[in-house]
Design a protein that fits this description.
The chain is about 45% helix and about 0% strand. By secondary structure, the protein is mostly helical. Helix 1 crosses helix 2. The longest helix has 24 residues. About 15% of the residues are buried.
Length: about 90
């Protein structure tokens, strides 16, 4: 049996208040952390089921990190996205 596979597509990442010079680092951290969370989900003996959705988009919960910490911001956003998909059961 092959490992479960999930694919998360972020069509648009809007970063308000983030300097242009840090935007790439935020996006890279978001991508990396989503990968880590997906691998943990796939490896779990009882991974949480993703929540069914009817809407065409989903807004993640707000996150708060220190200014000037793009890696932390990307990681926090990834956690919010994954929590939204898993109904907060990460």
């Amino acid at each position: 049996m092959s490992a479960p596979r999930i694919e998360i597509v972020v069509d648009e990442l809007v970063l308000r208040g983030v300097p242009d010079a840090q935007a790439g680092a935020v996006a890279a951290a978001l991508r990396a952390e989503l990968g880590v969370l997906g691998e943990r989900w796939a490896a779990a003996s009882a991974p949480p089921a993703f929540v069914a959705r009817d809407e065409s988009f989903r807004r993640a919960r707000p996150v708060s990190v220190a200014a000037g910490a793009p890696a932390q911001l990307g990681g926090a956003v990834a956690g919010a996205v994954f929590d939204g998909l898993a109904g907060g059961r990460r």
